Amino acid sequence: MKTRVEFELNGAPVAAEIEPRLTLGDCIRHELGKTGTHIGCEHGVCGACTIIIDGEAVRSCLTLGVQVAGKSVMTIEGLAEGEKLGPLQASFQKHHGLQCGFCTPGFLMTAHALLTREPDADEERIREVLSGNVCRCTGYLSIIKAVMDARPAYQRSQGGRS
């Protein structure tokens, strides 16, 4: 038996008829067609599926779609400013903070949630928060540099886009 769930996705109202056991990650990808959220380990360990729900970074593989009824959800597609990359995305590009790109949406969403709340986060804090995301390609240094370099945009706007 399917359940209708309505929520806000990247600033727009959406609705889907889903099985109550369907994860939010699968709902976003397969029911709503937003494929930027990557599903990796499906156990909440790798961080590739991280999205933002009501301002908090959350693993979409551990969240059921029905749990977000009435909430605000942001995916990687919501970071861009129209056709222009958002400040964090541009910084990842500038500092080569990605290689294969599989983990990148999770890192970007985790970093966006952090910088939205803590635009003055220092390197130690950034490393601590990003430690829950796994990357097998970059060695993390370029990711840390990219997040550090994006901080002024969040400081100016006191949170960037949220």
Molecular structure report:
This protein has helices spanning 24-31, 87-94, 104-117, 123-130, 141-157, and strands at 3-9, 12-18, 50-53, 56-59, 72-74. The chain is an alpha+beta fold and 162 residues long. The protein has 2 domains: 3-78, Ubiquitin-like (UB roll); 87-159, [2Fe-2S]-binding domain (DNA polymerase, domain 1), CATH 1.10.150.120. InterPro entries: 2Fe-2S-bd, 2Fe-2S-bd_dom_sf, 2Fe-2S_ferredoxin-like_sf, 2Fe-2S_ferredoxin-type, 2Fe2S_fd_BS, Beta-grasp_dom_sf, Diverse_Oxidoreductases. It comes from Rhodopseudomonas palustris.
Index terms:
single chain; 162 residues; alpha+beta; Ubiquitin-like (UB roll); DNA polymerase, domain 1; five-stranded mixed beta sheet; 5 helices; 5 strands; 15% strand
